[in-house]
Amino acid sequence: MEGYLTFRRPRRIITIVLAGFTVLILLLAFTFTRPNAKAVDNIDLSESRGSSNNGTGDDIAAKKARLHFLVPATSSNANLCKLMLSAQILGYPTPVLINFGDPENPDAYVQHLAKVQGFLDYLGSILERDKAAGVEEEHLVFIVDGYDVWLQLHRDVLVERYFASNAAADERTAREFGQELFEEHDMRQTIIFGPDKICWPIDYALGPHQDKGPLELNTPRWLNSGTILGSARNLRDLFQATLDDIHRNHVTDSDQFYVAEIFGRQEYARIERTRGLGPGKDLMVARKNWTYESGDFKGLGRSEPTMFGNRTEYHIGIDYTSSMFQTMAYWKQYLTLVRPSNSWPPAAHPDAYNPQVVRVPDDVAQSSPPFSVLSDSTSETDLDLAAKWDDVDLLYNVATEQIPVLIHFAGLPGKEKAFREIWWHRMWFQERAEMLRLAALNVTARDAINKTPSKKIGGYRWYNAEPPEADDIRLRGVDGAWADASGGWYSWRGLCSAFEPTIYNRTGNHYWHPV
């Protein structure tokens, strides 16, 4: 990082500018009383969630892979429990709480190091465990902020979209930079971050008139470190580089700043390697004459980072269309909760409109139906157990035309974060949350005990990751969360019972839940 820019304050400006231009170039290539549920202890081992291993040659040939679920959280509250509830209903792995129970250090530098070190320690432990056992399994690691994320779609949809996004990104990158350069520098995408419409911590990379309008009109070309999905091995390298940058040049207490720096260097290096090639050619020439536009540095020229001898490729990408990760900041006027079965084109004047009809994507339609974990014996006689995803309210982005896997309430208290209260009662599962949670835990525990994998995705059979200690915990610990450092397990009762009235409370307004 030393010598990255001549002046310390705007160090990251040039890489973010160039990363932004690279992103824009690449973006041109694509369009924009308790319910009557079975007790968790009563497990019927004959059933399972979704597809199971049917013993065919295709199943036997598929490699084994595990999905890990990491949540940085030092303590429990209602927002953490809402995340856990949505994850349990939708079949995600039991979360591992990073730095849970650790006191907040008054030194922000120390506190910040602890978070990144917590990720590194966990990633190192699972890879070392494989090494000691003489196996080499694939580990996919899902990381989300603990206090402002909800899930709305199944685990398998997340994994399918991860592989689809990587394949599309690799195709675009190879087309943009050439297949030879792509392979020579291994430009594959294996780590995906959520998108942001602003550079955070705020640093107007393009000057005070950036994007020439309200922030809501910005294109989402920055990364948000509150939602991440990636290969364990590549994430370990990325977090180690992040920790090294923090040690070398600590200027802020946001991990997003340092990860954005690394992403910026990656994109800068990719452009640098295309001198004289394609769209990057003019940019590399024009940048020589750029100067700072405001502040103490107005009129001063910009120096370029030195890349020689430094690793720059970390396989980072961004979920630009929000197919997986939907951030809230400056997006809320484009987001709505809709029921696809209630969406149809207008019959009158069909030629005068270009209607946007909300349709459930194939990957969602083919996943387990919303209420499939419930048995026919449920006492909820007004509930249609055969309901499909078309029949429930789902968050929808009208700009990208995506139904995302999750919603991340990034933004300001009293603004974007206020929607954690406004929208909770509109989530498709909330009205029957307790019944769905208990029923889903039956299925998840059964799959864990039977070692039932998912269908094959990306050439792998996917299992929910669990620590060795799961053998010693009732129902393998699915009804709670693991703690990383202590290695302990915390039950739902211990973490969330105090918040159940808030989580399970029904508004009594069935307008929100007509099913």
TrEMBL record:
Keywords of this entry: Membrane, Transmembrane, Transmembrane helix
Transmembrane portions of the chain: 12-32
Protein name in the entry: Uncharacterized protein
